[in-house]
Amino acid sequence: MILAVAVLIAVGIALMRGGSLKRLADVPLKAGWVALVAFGLQVYLIYFPETVNQGLGSPRAALLAFSYLLLFIFVARNRALPAMAFIGAGMLANFSVMLLNGGYMPITPEALEQVGHARRAMSTEPGARVTMSKDIVLPREATVAWWLSDIFVVPPPFPLPTVFSFGDVLIAFGAIWLIQTAMRAA
Amino acid sequence: MKNLNQLANPTLVRVIYVLLALLAMALAGGAPDGFGGFTG
Question: Where do the structural domains in chain A lie, given as residue ranges?
Answer without folding.
Answer: 2-184
